[in-house]
């Protein structure tokens, strides 16, 4: 099995692309969902966030107030990096657990939906393929203004707070262009899925694991049939 890192930008259409992959039967891990999971009360990241940012980031029930925390780190790179340093190690642990579950179920590849794949670069080394859901800036701006009911100034500020999609597209192995009709984008997703399914890049790891399991089985057989009887 190999990992496919998928990312995009605000209003680029990443969520719609993910839905198509899921309809095709693909395994998808949403890192944003994991990020919310690891900051729940009782988890190490929750405790550390409260220590660093104070109790003002808490709701009455003890959950993290994501809006308040988001406002604290908005346009403050140092605070954003500090939050990432707290949450990212915990997210990686959860990601590995979920990936292993899909491996045991026989999936050839797993898609990891990672919004900050190229910004942090922390998970890039684990990805065999990288995919960017792209659209041109004008299309992105119009979609964001319509979807979030924002004026042009506010929409541009949100887009400018992210790494430009043109830069992400240059770094990605695959680019799904969602600038035009949705039917065109959907066809791109279907073709990419077929390409990944045909890939044999999952074989080395799977064969390595199977070889290791076979070795363990042989060792257990020798122990039980030849060595233990004389103990």
UniProtKB/TrEMBL annotation:
Source superkingdom: Eukaryota
UniProt keyword Glycoprotein present: no
Keyword check for Nucleotide-binding: yes
Keywords assigned by UniProt, alphabetized: ATP-binding, Kinase, Membrane, Nucleotide-binding, Transferase, Transmembrane, Transmembrane helix
PROSITE patterns noted in UniProt: DPCK
GO CC annotations, alphabetized: cytoplasm
Any Pfam family the entry gives: CoaE
Any Gene Ontology biological process: coenzyme A biosynthetic process
Chain ranges passing through the membrane: 207-228
GO MF annotation, one: dephospho-CoA kinase activity
Alphabetical list of InterPro entries matching this protein: Depp_CoAkinase, P-loop_NTPase
UniProt family annotation: Belongs to the CoaE family.
UniProt-recorded name of the protein: Dephospho-CoA kinase domain-containing protein
Source organism per UniProt: Callithrix jacchus (White-tufted-ear marmoset)
């Amino acid at each position: 099995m190999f990992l496919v890192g998928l990312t995009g930008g605000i209003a680029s259409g990443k969520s719609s692309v993910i839905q198509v992959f899921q309809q095709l039967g693909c395994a998808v891990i949403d890192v944003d969902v994991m990020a919310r999971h690891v900051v729940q009360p009782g988890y190490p990241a929750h405790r550390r966030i409260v220590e660093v940012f104070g109790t003002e980031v808490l709701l009455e029930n003890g959950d993290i107030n994501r809006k308040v925390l988001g406002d604290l780190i908005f346009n403050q790179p140092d605070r954003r990096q500090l939050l990432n340093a707290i949450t990212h190690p915990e997210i990686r642990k959860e990601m590995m657990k979920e990936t292993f579950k899909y491996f045991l179920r026989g999936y050839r590849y797993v898609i990891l939906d990672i919004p900050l794949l190229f910004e942090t670069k922390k998970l890039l080394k684990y990805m065999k393929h990288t995919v960017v859901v792209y659209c041109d800036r004008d299309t992105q701006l119009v979609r964001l203004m319509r979807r979030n009911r924002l004026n042009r100034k506010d929409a541009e500020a949100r887009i400018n707070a992210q790494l430009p999609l043109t830069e992400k597209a240059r770094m990605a192995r695959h680019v799904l262009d969602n600038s035009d009709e949705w039917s065109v984008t959907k066809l791109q997703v279907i073709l990419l899925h077929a390409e990944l399914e045909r890939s044999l890049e999952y074989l080395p790891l799977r064969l390595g694991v199977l070889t290791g399991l076979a070795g363990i089985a042989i060792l257990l057989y020798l122990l039980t049939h030849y060595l233990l009887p004389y103990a």
